[in-house]
Write a structure and sequence with these properties.
The complex is a heterotrimer. By secondary structure, chain A is an alpha/beta fold. In chain A, about 30% of the residues lie in helices and about 30% in strands. Chain A has helices spanning about 45-50, 75-80, 100-105, 115-125, 135-150, 165-180, 195-200, 220-225, 265-270, 285-295; strands at about 5-15, 20-30, 35-40, 60-65, 70, 85, 155-160, 185-190, 205-210, 210-215, 225-230, 245-250, 255-260, 275-280. In chain A, a hairpin with a 2-residue loop joins strand 4 (about 60-65) and strand 5 (about 70). Chain C is mainly α. The chains are: A alpha/beta, B mainly alpha, C mainly alpha. The interface of A and B includes residues 32, 33, 181, 196 and 201 of A.
């Protein structure tokens, strides 16, 4: 079973002083998927990713990436031979040229994909003899992505890969992600753009204040998730809505709105017993994310 | 690639259904004919910028429906005889469905139901009936 | 050792190193080529102001060329510049990269943090050693051009003192940059410390007997060495041993820090 996960964490926790950046995060990223990692700023996405890559040490809990223990330096190095990472901060070395930066990185990866390097140099029109210091922010991001995609990695961990890119370049990056996935790589990427997650991901992890609040597939969103609304004469007892699949309940006067993660048909039938005008509506990823992040949980 | 349009993730219709519908449509209009080969999973995923698993799933499902033929190691092709039969039957079905939809909608309109309300009623009905998302945008 | 990492460290320090080369050649070249000019100035001074109370080293500087080099180059001006250069070459590391924003990229590479540190330390030591060699070459060639006989072993001994003593400043710089965040803050702190050190220690370098409390800070005196080295007994072996141990200790602290930090 273990082999089928590219990333798994168990109760992963990180404190920075008194601040709990990540609180008991338990999650799985199956191999061969494109998994979108969603959450607000400061939700703990980057802290989690840094722990996975061995850049910071978990306060508690543990994690495995490609079946290597993240807290063990030797195993972490073995893991990093197979993983490509692009961080939130896409700065590179100011004292090299684009060419030197590529040659330096290439030396660490025997499986370096020269054809991808060349393709991206052409597509991004990166001037190889230009000092990286003099690249625009967009070009720097492109170079960072080139250095990641050409590694021929089994797992790509991308922290906000399209941030700061224009729509054309952002689409180009998504195309690269799709291409890497078609080559068999697992992709784990964080993003603020729900639309791009919806476009390419097949799985979603949503975290809030360092905890997992939603783990689902895009398929399940279209087939299982529903918003069900009923108009009640008198407010229903909470027990009346304690039905399998009900994940959120909002009451506004006579209207009760429920988010169902599955089992929508049964829930609607049960609500029809005491409510008039029960409506069942499909939900978009955006609606589900916003609903899951609402703080006043019933 | 101009055969298929990039899917619109914001439309509310799942991407895999959008792709499936596009392939069906291409077969119905004759843009794709029996024996024609479809793009490889990788090429189609990259050009449409969608998940390769999604493309694979659509090809598999269309194979089960008899529209496509997957030849191992070669690629996906529009099924030779299956298609014509499929399209003919399908076209007939769609024509009949269109007719009943027309009379159903005009009946509701006569009763004073607004178009938006009709849409919502249909969505709600579809969402509970078979677990699949409605195709109405 | 990992070649790409050495290459990275070289590229990172290249500009600083080349600046250091120019400064070294300029300072060593100046004190050799300008010897006759400085000497004639002091002569005139002696004649015009016979009543002046001159410091103890003064008369010998005028008469003795190796002592002149000892005084101006190894014990005073060049030594202070040397310490500054050693600190400059030691600046770098993951904390600095974190402040700059490239730490994420570096840490994603499949190498240990120990190796990252080792590459940076090795390049810095090699650069400092090269500077010492260049200083020797500059002093020797300058003396030859000016027709001043200069025994090579005098130069070798004193530059060896400077190199070995300089390692402690290099190690301190390697260490400080792992602890203090920011791209330039560690340099400012290090230079402040060095300034204070020389303010307190210069009288001892100039010949005052060493007070007990100044012993642990006697590196400037150690780096200057005795004016005349005639046998192995003239060399402060214990002092060298202690200073190298401290340098190794500082490197050890830096390694521990970089291996246990969160970036």
């Amino acid at each position: 079973m273990k082999q089928s996960y590219a990333i798994e964490t168990d109760n992963l926790t990180k404190y920075y002083g008194d601040f709990e950046a990540v609180r008991g995060l338990t999650m799985r990223v199956p191999k061969g998927t494109i998994t979108g990692f969603l959450g607000q700023n400061g939700a703990g996405k980057s802290s989690t990713i840094r722990m996975l890559l061995g850049m910071s040490r978990p306060t508690r809990g543990n994690g495995r990436v490609l079946d290597f223990d993240i807290a063990d330096e030797k195993q972490s190095i073995e893991m990093r031979k197979r993983v490509a990472y692009v961080g939130e901060d896409k700065r590179l070395y100011d004292y090299t040229t684009v060419r030197q930066m590529i040659d330096f990185t290439k030396a660490f990866y025997p499986g370096w994909r020269a054809e991808i390097e060349q393709k991206l140099l052409d597509e991004f029109r990166l001037p190889t003899d230009r000092p990286t210091k003099k690249l625009s922010k967009g070009m720097r991001t492109q170079l960072a992505l080139l250095l990641a995609f050409a590694r021929g990695a089994e797992l790509l961990v991308l922290d906000e890969p399209t941030e700061g890119l224009d729509p054309v370049m952002a689409e180009k990056v998504l195309e690269l992600v799709v291409g890497a996935a078609a080559d068999g790589a697992t992709i784990f990427f964080s993003s603020h753009q729900i639309a791009e997650v919806e476009q390419i991901a097949d799985r979603i992890l949503l975290i809030d204040r360092g905890q997992l609040v939603l783990e689902t597939t895009l398929e399940s969103i279209s087939t299982d998730f529903r918003r069900i609304r009923g108009v009640y004469d008198s407010a229903p007892k909470p027990s009346a809505l304690a039905i399998d699949g009900v994940t959120r309940i909002a009451v506004d006067g006579r209207v009760v709105s429920v988010m169902a993660s599955h089992n929508a048909v049964t829930i609607a039938e049960r609500m029809k017993a005491s409510a008039s005008a029960v409506e069942v509506m499909p939900m978009t990823l955006k609606e589900i994310v916003l609903e899951s992040l609402k703080r006043d949980q019933a | 690639m101009t055969l298929f349009l990039k899917p619109n993730p914001a439309s509310g219709v799942p991407i895999y259904l959008q792709l499936k519908e596009q392939i069906r449509h291409a077969c119905e209009t004759g843009a794709l004919r029996p024996g024609d080969s479809l793009p490889g999973i990788r090429a189609l995923a990259e050009s449409m910028v969608i998940n390769p698993n999604t493309v694979a799933r659509v090809y598999r499902e269309l194979e089960q429906e008899g529209l496509l033929e997957l030849r191992h190691g070669v690629g996906a092709f529009v099924a030779s005889r299956g298609t014509t039969r499929w399209t003919a039957a399908r076209t007939g079905q769609m024509k009949a469905a269109q007719k009943s939809a027309k009379s159903f909608v005009s009946e509701l309109r006569r009763r004073g139901i607004e178009p938006d309300e009709i849409r919502r009623l249909i969505d709600a009905e579809l969402a509970t009936s078979d677990g699949k998302m409605p195709m109405v945008g | 050792m990992n070649k790409p990492l050495l290459y990275k460290s070289w590229l990172e320090t290249r500009t600083r190193f080349l600046t250091a080369v120019i400064v070294t050649l300029a300072v060593c070249g100046f004190f050799t080529l300008a010897h006759s000019w400085i000497e004639s100035m002091w002569h005139r001074d002696l004649i015009e102001h016979p009543g002046y109370d001159n410091p103890p080293w003064f008369l010998r500087v005028v008469r003795d060329y190796p002592f002149y080099l000892y005084h101006y180059v190894y014990a005073d001006f060049f030594q202070k510049i040397w310490v500054f250069l050693a600190i400059l070459l030691g600046v770098g590391g993951l904390s600095r990269e974190a402040a700059h924003g490239s730490a994420g990229f570096t840490l994603s590479l499949p190498v240990s943090r120990l190796r990252l540190f080792a590459a940076r330390a090795l390049i810095a030591v090699a650069e400092l050693f090269t500077l010492a060699l260049l200083a020797l070459v500059a002093v020797s060639i300058g003396s030859w051009i000016m027709g001043l006989p200069y025994p090579i072993d005098h130069g070798v001994t004193h530059l060896a003192f400077l190199f070995l003593g300089g390692l402690i400043f290099l190690a301190a710089s390697l260490c400080l940059t792992e602890f203090v965040e920011g791209e330039n803050t560690p340099v400012v702190i290090a230079l402040g410390g060095v300034g204070l050190l020389y303010f307190v220690m210069q009288p001892y370098v100039d010949g005052a007997p060493l007070d007990w409390f100044a012993m642990p800070f006697a590196i400037p005196k150690l780096m200057a060495g005795p004016a005349d080295v005639t046998s192995a007994t003239d060399i402060a072996w214990l002092g060298l041993f202690v200073s190298l141990t401290v340098a190794a200790l500082l490197a050890g602290i830096a390694i521990h820090r970089t291996r246990t930090s969160d970036y």
